[in-house]
């Protein structure tokens, strides 16, 4: 089996940027958003969130759903780069 590429594509980069923008707009520190996500049942550290926002860590679908819920937007809004809450 061939190894998967770790490169993050345009959708991943757009999602990462949208997560950061929404977090800042809501006045949340990375540790606060990570704590919200963890409280929703998806363990996440502020280091993990930082790496997601910098597009240095892949954000799987479970991360996207939990982050969207914590930011009070739809997962689609994160994927499409929609900033409206």
Structure characterization notes:
The protein is an all-alpha fold. α1 runs parallel beside α4 (61-71), α2 (30-39) packs across α3 (46-53) and α2 crosses α4 (61-71). The longest helix has 16 residues, at 10-25. It contains 5 helices and no strands. The mean pLDDT is 92. Helices cover 60% and strands 0% of the residues.
Briefly, what is this?
Helices cover 60% and strands 0% of the residues. With 85 residues, the chain is mainly α.
The overall average pLDDT, rounded, is 92
Distance between the termini: 41 Å
Q: Work out the radius of gyration.
A: 12 Å
Globally, the shape reads globular
Tell me the helix content: 55-70%
Q: Supply the number of helical segments.
A: 5
H-E order: HHHHH
Strands, total number: 0
Structural features:
single chain, mainly alpha, globular, 85 residues, 5 helices
What is the element layout, followed by pairings?
Blueprint: H1 10-25, H2 30-39, H3 46-53, H4 61-71, H5 75-80
Helix pairs in contact: 1-4, 2-3, 2-4
């Amino acid at each position: 089996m061939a190894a998967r590429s770790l490169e993050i594509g345009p959708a991943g980069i757009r999602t990462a940027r949208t997560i950061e923008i929404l977090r800042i707009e809501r006045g949340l520190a990375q540790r606060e958003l990570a704590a919200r996500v963890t409280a929703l049942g998806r363990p996440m550290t502020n280091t993990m969130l930082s790496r997601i926002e910098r597009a240095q860590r892949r954000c799987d679908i479970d991360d996207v759903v939990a982050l969207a819920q914590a930011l009070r937007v739809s997962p689609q809004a994160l994927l499409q780069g929609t900033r409206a809450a």
